[in-house]
Amino acid sequence: MYKLMLSDLDETLLIDHHVPDFNIKAIKKARQKGLKFIPATGRAYNMILDVLKEIGTYEQSGEYSICFNGGLIVENKNSRVLNFKGLSFEQTDILFKKAKDYEVCVLVFTMNMCYIYNANNEEIERKIAQKAPFTIMDNYSIDHLKNEQIAKILYQKNDISYLKMIERDLNNIIEEKVAVSYSSNRYLEFNALGVNKGYGLKWLANYLGINIKETIAIGDNYNDVEMIKAANLGTCVISAADDIKANAQYVTKLDYYQGAVKEVIEKFVLEEK
After folding, report:
1. What DSSP designation does 254 have?
2. pTM for this one?
3. How far is it, in rounded angstroms, from Cα 94 to Cα 124?
4. Residue 267 class from Cβ within 10 Å (0-12 exposed, 13-18 middle, 19+ buried)?
């Protein structure tokens, strides 16, 4: 029996930033069978509170969330931080300054705030919809963050090929120094070295004393790959790119807006025919 399931949020669990009823009902049934259902997201913890309320784990002891792509693991009761692994200020500042060479919006996440540089209207509207606490910065500097816990830095552009070109350009300063991933077909993300959702899954399973053979993960994007590979049953939403699907043992028949998460829960947790 599976005891722990991690799910990505955007383009996996959510529709328009909310959990649809069909997923809520499936999650409730699975939790009644003893499954721990864990959101695993690139978002900050304070951006997913409505999601936790919708799935019934908000402010619950013994319920958990994985945020910042595995960089932050929280017990939901009293927002208790169990593990945080962030970027150093020096690493962040190098990447922040290099971003000036490219046509990107830059987002720097601390534990509780998102600082946006070269902001565009679409990104601002997205952060409002996600209920993210954010500050639009006019002065291109992160000196005010020297004593803050920095979770990650993102480059945003709605052009994945352009972002991949940037990754190649930066190879000398990022290789073996930071973790790199992509999400939502718009972000190039930099986390602390070793941080990814797979790291988060392994850390939480170990903390809870759950065997990795009792774990499931579902996702759709490049920042989900390590989680899909780490879980005993790695599953992927049908709309994912082929090179992401290649890492999964099971690819859903339904897309995320049709009930991909519900499909995996019913088939492998509830074992409904």
Report:
1. S
2. 0.96
3. 24
4. middle
